[in-house]
Fold:
Amino acid sequence: MPTIRDVARTAGVSVATASRALNGHSNVTDGLRKRVTDAAAQLNYIPHSGARSLTRQRSDAIGVVLPDLFGEYFSELVRGIDRIAHQAGLQLLLSNMHGSAQSTATAIRAMRGRVDGMLIMPPETDPAYLVSSLPPGLPTVLINYPSGLVDLPSVAIDNCYGARAMTEALLSRGYHRIAHISGPRDNRDARERLRGFTDAMHESGNEQSPLILPGDFTEEAGAEAARLIIAGNVAVDAVFAANDMMAVGCLAVLREAGIMVPDQIAVAGFDDIPLARFTYPALSTVEVHIADMGAAAMSLLLAQLHDQDAPTQDQLLKPALMMRGTTAMNHKSMRQSTANDQREERELS
Amino acid sequence: MPTIRDVARTAGVSVATASRALNGHSNVTDGLRKRVTDAAAQLNYIPHSGARSLTRQRSDAIGVVLPDLFGEYFSELVRGIDRIAHQAGLQLLLSNMHGSAQSTATAIRAMRGRVDGMLIMPPETDPAYLVSSLPPGLPTVLINYPSGLVDLPSVAIDNCYGARAMTEALLSRGYHRIAHISGPRDNRDARERLRGFTDAMHESGNEQSPLILPGDFTEEAGAEAARLIIAGNVAVDAVFAANDMMAVGCLAVLREAGIMVPDQIAVAGFDDIPLARFTYPALSTVEVHIADMGAAAMSLLLAQLHDQDAPTQDQLLKPALMMRGTTAMNHKSMRQSTANDQREERELS
DNA sequence: TGCGTTTGTGTAACCGGTTACAAAGATTTC
DNA sequence: GAAATCTTTGTAACCGGTTACACAAACGCA
Structure:
């Protein structure tokens, strides 16, 4: 593997000249430049980015540390990040913190010296520990982390706002006895969604202690919640699940039990997973643009990279409602919102 | 940001001793080692991985170059790669070659000097060009690339085998007039699936020139194919789409037209996307373990990394059939395979 | 006590680039 | 024609680690 010294020797110049020629500096005569580029081509020279970034004091790479690397959520996030990073000529160094705070620290430390900045989506862990394991002076943006806890800019989805909006939309459609299937108690998103729901219910004055069913974001949890409602014969005219998978599970059990959706009970979810458009009836949900969150985080980081102390405004992305068949207001027609019926009503931007 | 020289100075030792102490070499007295680790902790020293990899001549990172960074396919692939890479203590440097062969070469060159090996999923481009832009001597494994074209180990899904197996399964269930909705002509997977289908049909002797409808992997293409079949009143008792999205589009149009699936026409797809279990009836398809392909590629690369000239056996991963409601043999019962009915019949391993 | 061996530490070279500075040559200015 | 300035090139230091080698001290053995 040839180095720049090989190129210089072949071209009959010094390494300094070779470096300058290859990097397009202006103070190199055309003749020499050609000799250098020819030599580089002949030797099939590829510069060693590692060595380059050592002297340049920049790597043109940014580190991305995520709690998990799977599912639509992950790929969307990375896609959004890459969209911005690529056009800025930055590479992505990806790391998965496999659960423990310990391995999070390891992952973060391993990035030092090979990235110019970091994007971190931290688990629900001690923020102090997170900050302590962070290389000081390395521009960092947090993803989906409540602002205020640590002194770093962050980007997050406004889960509370989304849940509140969906709840209000249900109320305005005439559903008043709304039950909520909550997500895991130790999940920040789930807690925020629950809060949005209860806030909206309290403010409406319709129901002071709405039914909250426990869930864990799985399809089965949604199914179980539906069984509880049916068995308990609870007076409920709408179910708002904290995510789409639970809504899907709920929907299936309700239909199986012969309960008409949305005529007897409306159903709503959260996330707008691809499947949501294909349930029967199509699922009303809250559309979360994960890719946009990734892009926003990357843009924020880019600003920091460009100007070390750029103003760092935390960002809260507002999700939009996607009202489909499972919450139709018109109770007469059931033949609406089939899989290929893609009329969608976007209510909020 | 403190360097190892700062640590050495604080501990009152030479950089060599500091380095040895921090890396756990045995030839350091306990007293000095403690002084060094204490100094490192006090200064919050984090080693500079870039500099480290320069001398070590290894980066403990591998480069992953993919044609696109979105969808389930991508996240599954990365998940499989990470599973193996993480337990080997390797980081992932991710790169998207945005379409052009030009930018592929750029992406690959940018990795030189910061990775120990590469995993590449090349586009349908000139293999010679690909190889020429590859740093020689850098262990590389190709993903989903036909073996034989270039002299590099590769891992791929046996699309032809999967399509053949599904076609034979349909034939054995009594469907003989099978139409195929093909994928884009310039897509390797699509061509292989088509080949598997036509091979199986020819060998069966049932139909010498089966109907091939053009498609492009989109839901709409599947819908259009279904409309063609309905409008043309073609004698067809099964449709095998080259991917699930087209099968879903096809299914929706057939149902809308009042055609009973699977009684009048059976439908099958390819990929086993999450949605496949939730269509009505649930979609029979070919299960492709993308994560396994990523893991296999990473394992192959790991073997190369460990032993520069380990035997490089190309791998062809055989997909499995998932027969669900859209190809049921029993035509009497329609109430099968609803969303929450997850009985699945695994036919091949 | 003197000699060879082992052990622990420091000095300095090296990885592969970039760039400050010096020097030489070309050009301009008086 | 000499001095001042600008341009082009080379030498060598540097980025932040690792490690070959040299060397001194401690140890074992006759």
